[in-house]
Fold each of these.
Amino acid sequence: MEISPSAPRIALLPAVVRDQIAAGEVVERPASVVKELLENALDAGATQISVDLEEGGTRLIRVTDDGAGMGPEDLALAFTSHATSKLRDPSDLVHIASLGFRGEALASVASVARCQVISRTAESETGHRLSCEGGQQGEVTEAGAPLGTTLEVRDLFYNVPARRRFLKRPSTELGHCLAAVQRAALAHDGVGFVVNSDGRRAYDVEASMDFLARIRRTFGAELIDHLEAVNVNDGDLILSGYLGSPRISRRDTSRQIWMLNGRFLRDRVLSRVLKEAYRGVLEEGRQPVAFLRLAMNPAAVDVNVHPAKSEVRFRDQRRLFGFLVSALKVAVHETDMATPGESMLAGRARRLVREENPLQGKLADPGAGPQPESVVRERSGRPFVPGDDFISPGAVTQSHPANPASAPLQSSDPDSDPWAPTDNLQGPYLQVGKTFLLRALPDGFEIIDQHALHERLTYELLLQEVRAGKVEVQRLLVPEVVEVSRADRVLLEEHLESLSSLGIELASMGETSMMVSGLPARLRHPDPAGLVGDLIEVIGRTGEPPTASDVLEQVLHSCACRSSIMAGDVLSQEEIQALLERARAAENDQTCPHARPTRVRFTLSDLERAFHRR
Ligand code: ADP
Ligand code: MG
């Protein structure tokens, strides 16, 4: 084609085409329409919202709300792009408190579907109706209507065949639509939601349901037993919700829900927060379950990053990250981490008693370092209220017929811990296969992996010593010489000083050997050669000094692993007793540092179930 130099080539696109381009970003599938319409209903202050779907929303999406409604003038502008009631001037963009603000959703949807809206405000006797098909807007007419708004979207992408082809089967689209409603329902207490699909009820929550009841309705009742409440208030930042115990971790992240000021988020920073909070208690490849709500000043976050508004930018990301990780870590360690075999009830009874008696650990073992339980209480800032858990006290009593769960709470006697080795529990312990310890409990028994437990305790003690800056060193009577490659010797030599701050005393002995002259005194059967091998591997792989926070954990794991009571050590009754006493005082004695479980518990009710007695 020949173009004459003077003919203009740039022209403004017609409004419909502009809206269709915008629709490409906002409207991907029926579920995106559902999300936008729900946000509008919520912004209008609705307390009851119903969603009707036909053929997974591809044929019809109808959202009815009892919110503020629109008068005829507003109605006339609703489908116009960049028309919004939620922003006035640029300064409003810095503190967006509503879910919508771009004034783009209805215009986009109407450019690729057949839409009709009927609405009435409280001030008006009659309602009004307006339709808009493929961007062609009709006239506003009067129509009888209840207070609020009904928005119908039919035949999505009827005029964009390329998009229509990408729609999946109705059942798949329905699944996405339901997920959109569920997210909204999880984020907004006080609002009731109903979904009907092809005339059948597909989901509902009542306005009166609280967050936990919504989680139960959405994800099922079994989950509820494995959640720990989180509630932290940092002045201008409030974090609340529930964390799942590692026992119910999953392969995917479908049960990780973050909400910020009522907005569902998909955010890489927040996923990293969870990963960090569960570090050491989740096995590789597992994803935690978490339902968390963040409330913060809208000015501290930029929601105008992405047209679908599901990504945000935090202004003080560093501080937020640190705050969230430390708050969540505390909650993670309060979840019930024991492995199937133990019922939730057992874990709970044990936890309650420990919280009641912060001194208990000290009584058990004065050498065990600071008392984690009391630290946990201070940090979480949450006053302990007996019975504030979501398990009914009735259920607890049932499983402890001879020992009502309320009894330990009233008693200040440290020995009232039902899991503590009281007289009738002081052995005999059975050691099986020189690896597992069997121990009777008032309400069942437990099997402990002696190596995994000892490894966890050694690790925690080492970590405490390193944090306190005083690792006790044991000099080896006969220093051990370890052969290494030239390159590895050079690598280790760079880090001799920081290794010595960890209690690992190394020196070069010529070209290809290192001498180990001291190791942390905590290590029971140290294996210097194995440890040096691990150090080379970890430092070589990460390229960071052994004291860097990520690397430190791995170095201490390896110390603990290379020195603990091994599977295969015969233990005396006294040694077993001492090991268990120390475990009582530890912050996390439920998993080894590699997140393998240290113990499996069987309660009476587990046994009854196994023998089909109930
Ligand atoms: P935004 O929500 O970003 O403002 P939309 O295109 O989604 O843009 O909606 C445009 C305007 O239409 C809103 O600002 C609001 O005033 C009005 N509106 C849309 N849906 C409703 C509703 N369900 N109830 C009351 N007003 C609504
Ligand atoms: Mg909107």
Note: Residues 340-425 have pLDDT under 50 and may be disordered.
Amino acid sequence: MKILGTGSALPKKVVTNDDLAQVMDTSDEWIKSRTGIEKRHIAVEETTTSMAVEAAKKAIEAAKISVLDIDLIICATVSSDYIFPTLACEVQAAVGAKRATAFDIGAGCSGFLFALATADAYFRTGRFHKALIMGAETLSKMMDWGDRSTCVLFGDGAGAAVVSAEENQLLSMVQGSDGESGMALKCDNRPVNNLYRQLGAQTYSYTEMNGSEVYKFAVRTVPTAISEALEQAKVPADDVKLYLLHQANRRIIEAVAKRLGQSLDKFPMNLQECGNISAASVPILLDKVCKDGMLQAGDKVVLAGFGAGLTWGACVLEW
Ligand code: UT7
């Protein structure tokens, strides 16, 4: 497969750490020193669908293809606007990709890697040829704004890529899941409403995270997954031009760089501007490095995601 074009969209409203410190017991110093995050975009007028559609249109334009060539749309999200129809079907309608089969996948912050792996597997059947894959999230609507240890970390946005079955840019893919540790990062679905099952008053919570558990999982799992992906691709870590990691925490990225023996300069970040946007963080960062002209033909790039599930994914691309 080959990435033909990328696009992204962020909400207009920017909320700084100082803005948050005015409405909860936190500080710019705490958030910046623990995470590297300085601000995040929060959807006020935008929705998950509107941002996904904006990112998709930009990616299709960058790919220079007809929208009718798209035969597959996969949206990775944990915060779609409807339980059904899926976000992917909403995007299909908005961009006019009438020939596409469209569905969502939920893999938390690994979502874009899982979408890429799924598109690749579909391509290998020979029945699909051009896919629009995306990560799109409005996490702000799922935060417990009374829980300062979690709500300050996340932001909203969408990133998209058009990928084609032609050529072989994807040199390797590693994915994994650890459901036994899944409750370290969770968000309840809506309360049960069933005439035949009376549960009385139900407790109902928004995003909850055991930060230190997820942190330990990330610094243990991500370097191993990346090393496996590099080994499969027969690419030495030193030969990689850029490592594009899920943007959860600067300290996690620093730990991964150290474990791989690589300079932090090879790990571009946008978490300082955007916070953690779950499935959207990797494609938004990919779009940024493409727009900034940081990738040339032949460059080796690693993408890696990790998060809710718990799940992880890493791949090596040759640009
Ligand atoms: O995308 C999914 C992946 N998610 C992640 O990768 C998140 C991974 N985890 C982390 O990034 C870190 O664990 C956090 C940034 C969430 C937390 O950092 P930490 O160094 O593990 O801090 P902590 O949770 O141990 O909290 C230390 C202190 C506590 O106070 P006491 O008990 O020591 O008095 C917290 O109450 O910091 C306090 N605290 C805060 N203080 C000011 C927690 N949140 C805040 C806050 N502002 N926002």
Note: Residues 26, 30-31, 34-35, 109, 148-149, 152, 185, 211-212, 214-215, 218, 248-249, 252, 276, 278, 307 surround oxa(dethia)-CoA (CB under 6 Å).
